[in-house]
Design goal:
single chain; about 110 residues; alpha+beta; Nuclear Transport Factor 2, Chain: A; 4-stranded antiparallel sheet; 3 helices; about 45% strand
């Protein structure tokens, strides 16, 4: 499961939109009233606009919240040529068949 979060951060850093979006469950909780296509378009724009991106994750807590669901709490450092931020985040990841996928992402 930690491999998923590491893959997600690496795909973001590499601006690999296809791999980044593949880390999310098909029924990921969308922020606001966005549709999945709207959310994907926004994420695609945010990954491709900067020239460089670096995302680092420092794990704080991994907790099983229900069968096949793990809550991940971590500090995220984001740096690009356009913006810098440090955020505490929560991901809920779920085992879907053989793989883990992000079903919820939010800043704390």
């Amino acid at each position: 499961m930690q491999a998923l979060v590491d893959l997600w951060a690496a795909a973001w850093s590499e601006k690999n939109v296809v791999q980044y979006l593949a880390c999310y469950s098909v029924d990921v909780s969308m922020p606001g009233k966005q549709s999945r296509p709207q959310w994907e378009a926004l994420r695609r724009s945010r990954l491709t606009r900067p020239r460089t991106i670096e995302v680092k994750v420092v794990y704080e807590k991994l907790e099983v919240t229900e069968p096949n669901v793990i809550q991940v709490i971590f500090d995220q450092t984001y740096r690009s040529n356009l913006y810098r931020d440090r955020t505490r985040k929560q991901l809920l990841v779920r085992k879907e068949r053989e793989d883990w996928r992000i079903m919820l992402e939010r800043s704390l």
